[in-house]
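The instructor's notes for this session suggest beginning with a concrete chain rather than abstract definitions. Hand out the sequence below and ask the class to guess, before any prediction is shown, which regions might be ordered.
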Amino acid sequence: MKPGVRLSRGRAALIHLTLSAVVAALAAALVFLVWYPHPFEVLAGGVSLFLLITSVDVVMGPLLTFAVFDPRKAVATLRRDLLVIGLLQLAALGYGLHTIYAARPAVLALEGDRFRVVTVVDVVDKELPLAPPGLQELPVLGPRMVRTAKPSA
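After discussion, reveal the predicted structure:
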C-alpha cells in the first residue's frame, strides 16, 4: 500500500456514493423547489423523470470507483481516474438536469371547468412573440397560472 492511500475499494465507493447522494439532494432541491413546485412534480411527471436520471447517476459513479480504485496505484493515477469518473458523472447529471429543465411545466391553464398543464416542449417557440404581453417568455421559476377564454364565433 502506498503511503497516503489508506482506503479500501469498498470504502472509496461508499464515500463516492455519499457525495453522489449529496449532489443528488441539491439537484432535487433545484428541481422540486424551482422547476416543478408542488403539485407539478406529480402532474408533469417530474418525480419519475428525476428518479430515472439521478438513480443512474448516483449508482454509476460509485460503481466505477469500485471498479478502478486500487490502493496499490500511484496517487496521481488514482486522482486522474477519480477525476475522470467525477467528470463523467457530472456530465451525465448535467445532461439529465437539462432534460428535466426542458420538460418543465410552463403554464397551468384553466380551460372552462378543468386545468391543463402545458410543458415547455408543448410550446411552439415561433409563436411566443404572438402571445399577449407577459406570456411571451417561458417561466423559469415554476409555471404561470392563466385562464383561457372561449373562442368567439
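Then share the key points. The helical segments are 9-35, 40-43, 46-68, 75-102. The chain has two domains: 9-102, 105-147.
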